[in-house]
Amino acid sequence: LTVLNAGRRYLKAEDLSGKVFVTSGLGGMSGAQAKAAVIAGCVGIIAEVDEAALLKRHKQGWLMEISNNLDHCIARLREARKNKIALSLGYHGNVVDLWERLVYELDKTGELLVDLGSDQTSCHNPFNGGYYPVQLGFEEAKQLLSTDPGKFRILVQESLRRHVAAINKLADKGMFFWDYGNAFLLEAQRAGADVEKKGANKTEFRYPSYVQHIMG
C-alpha cells in the first residue's frame, strides 16, 4: 500500500508497471519491500549488505533474483523497465554504491532510471550495526565496529552524506523519495547531510514521511 500510494500521490500513476523503486534493507520488516514491489507491479531493486538476509528472502520466494554486480543490476533494471515486467532484484552490496551508480547513469546518458526511492536500513541504530558505511565491505565494517566504534561512527556519517547527495541529485531530476520511518533523514541531518526543507524550521525535511504524507 505504501508503494502504491507513493505512486498515486507523487507519480500520479495508478499503474506502476515500468516504474522503478530503489531502496535498501531485506532484514526484518524491510524484507517485505521486495514482495511489495512485485505486488505493485513495478521494478524493485533492493540493496542489502548482509548476504544471509538476501539469501533468506530469495529462498522464501520474496526476492526473485540476486546479483552482486552493478552492471548486471542496471541491465536488468533497463530490460524490466522497458518491457514493464514486475521484478524484485536483490543487490548484494551497499545501497550508496547503487544510488551513486544511478547518478552516474543519469550524468552519462541523461536518463533517470528510478521513479521512487526510499530506505529501510536500521537507521534508528546506525552506529551499532543498523547502517553499514559504503567505504568498507560488510565483514571489514563489522570488524571495525568491534575494534574502533569511534572510527566506525565517522565512516557511517560520511556514508550518510554521500547517500543523501546521490538521492538529492536524482530527486532534482524527478525521482520521488520518502522516509520509511527508520530515522534515515534524522541521522542524515545529524551527519550534516543536506536534508532540511528550505525555508522551513529545522525539524522539517525536504522529503515526505510515509506515515503523514503517504499513508495519512
UniProtKB/TrEMBL annotation:
InterPro entries: Urocanase-like, Urocanase_central_sf, Urocanase_Rossmann-like, Urocanase_sf. Gene3D superfamilies: Urocanase like domains (3.40.50.10730). Residues 2-214 form the Urocanase Rossmann-like domain. It holds the Pfam family Urocanase. Transmembrane segments: none annotated. GO terms for biological process: L-histidine catabolic process. GO terms for molecular function: urocanate hydratase activity. SUPFAM superfamilies: Urocanase. PANTHER family: UROCANATE HYDRATASE (PTHR12216:SF3). This is HUTU hydratase. It comes from Piprites chloris.
